[in-house]
Request: fold
Amino acid sequence: MKKENEEIRICTSHQDELRTPLVWTFAFNGAEYWCPYCGKNEGMMGAGERVKSTAILRNRLKRFKKLSKDFLDAKCSQVCNSMMWEGKRITPDQLPQEEKDKRQKAIDDWKYEQKPLSLIIKP
Ligand SMILES: [Zn+2]
Reply:
């Protein structure tokens, strides 16, 4: 597949400041897209604006996914019905308290409007 012809969805709230690709996630009930820069959630129908995918946007998406992994994993574990934990299927409330605390910390530690150097180059 030719990447030059692909489209990518970006957040419509701050295109002049930082064009930010939306992340596909199940971490938020009823909204499959999340903006890692401003926190906007949108459902899969009509989320963001579709623009031509560029190497910079793809790289930015990759960087944001990496940065937000612990945050999104923690959010997912709060909204899911069940999860695998040490080989057993459990509900989120059955997680050990220490693990719950660790996940809550990952959520609390997440900062919006992060601008790591690798993200600020405008396409
Ligand atoms: Zn945004």
Remarks:
- The beta strands are 7-10, 23-28, 31-34, 41-42, 49-52, 83-85, 88-90.
